[in-house]
Amino acid sequence: MGAALEEEMEEEGELEAEAESTRAIEEAVKVLLQGLGEDHEREGLRRTPQRVAKAFREGTSGYRQKAKDIVQGALFTEAGLKDGQGYAGGAGGLVIVRDINLFSFCESCLLPFRVQCHIGYVPSGQRVVGLSKLSRVTDVFAKRLQDPKRLADEVCSALHSSIKPAGVAVALQCWHIQLPDALRCNPDAMSQSKWDMQGWARASFSSCAGVFEDGNISSFWDDFLTLLNLRDTYFEKGNAHLSVAHSWCPARSPALSLCNGHSRRNFTNGRISSKSGSTYPAMVSAAASVLQSLGEDPLRAELVGTPYRYVQWLMNFKTSNLQMKLSDLNVGKVKLQANDSGEVAIGRSGIYSELSLPFCSLCEHHLLPFHGVVHIGYFYEEEGEGIERAVLQSLVHFYSCKLQVQERFTRQIAEAVYSIFSRGVMVVIEAAHMCMISRGIKKVGSSTVTIAVMGQFSTDPAAKSLFLEAISTGTASGR
Q1: What gap in Å lies between CA 53 and CA 266, rounded to an integer?
Q2: CA 201, 140, 288: angle at the middle one, nearest 5?
Q3: Which is nearest to 67 in space by CA: 150, 147, 135, 146?
Q4: Partner of 424 for a Cys bridge, out of 215, 264, 379, 398, CB 3.0 to 4.6 A?
Q5: Distance of alpha carbon 197 from alpha carbon 176, whole angstroms
Q6: For 48-83, what is each residue's pLDDT tens digit?
Q7: Residue 468: Cβ-neighbour burial (10 angstroms; 0-12, 13-18, 19+)
Q8: Rounded to two decimals, what is the model's pTM?
């Protein structure tokens, strides 16, 4: 009876500690929203602190789990398994689980990054492990603030010590979203990729133990890579320790501070600075308190600077960034030349289209990025008049640099273009949301499409169909 009471009290203490941690994160998020010039009590933001706290707690639940607890009870003696290494059921060889899709929070900037993990092990001592446990063990370490190389090392070490195989190999392919400044410096980085992974920073990492790193038995590593490459997953053979020499996080790139010309930021003496000399101590302290509430040490070497980089990311979406008037964008009519065939429309007189204008914005519900492309179609009023692509790209950027929801974002762009060309406007946005794929239902590969129609597009089904067909074929007009 005493033991049961003690256990109940321990559980209550853990729940109270978790609730206190969640409240601390919520208060920190309110400070961050205030620093962005937002009112956390406005409609759309009232539950944002709770949502962000839940996302961070869920995304770092690995701190409260142990890999050995998962593996225990999942080790099986396989009948016919020889005592020697690599003999699964007496047949010999290795076991591989491929394409384990995960997300983890980058310890350098607190943004989630995507991971595709591949694990191989060579059974030994008549032990095999339930295959689902390999994925679950990986998830434990992914749900911590991470660096990809350390993630590979920790998964490899945990499996090697708990399963006790002849060897373990872990190969990771990782993608980190580019930062808005980086995209402005290289707008073509995403323009051709729609909402796929081509616009992301990408790197490969690996870790191995036992026979996989034994030079005399290197065939295990080569076999592992060969079986991965059968699925269009390419890893260079002969290198059992893939890694990136420099930090792979775009937020740590020295070139980023020089992007966009007018903006230059650094982290001298632990502060974010700009040409105006602005600092955000309250926001930086709030971000550091989030780390502490998650059970991390903000003074850990790898986390020094993380609060500042996270604030730098958020400041891309500060409300005051939008103080310029729409007229400052010089949105006006410009004469366009007909193409070689003499046509300026998508098979129908009077329609222009601009496709795959890239953007990156911040979801106001979770403070997580969503990114993708904008397609704009409109009826021109006079022969040969339209809007330059660069102007439309600036318009997209104008509305993306704030806390947003995709539906509102789509409508705002449509209304802005309609104010210039009132005959008809149609806007289609394709986007991938981090909040959809890094938390909750975790629908990796999912995307969201929103449409806004105004004027003639809303009454002319044929025009709408032509514009949608242009998007599907990638055929723009008027250029």
Answers
A1: 28
A2: 65
A3: 135
A4: 379
A5: 9
A6: 999 999 999 988 999 988 888 888 878 887 765 555
A7: middle
A8: 0.79
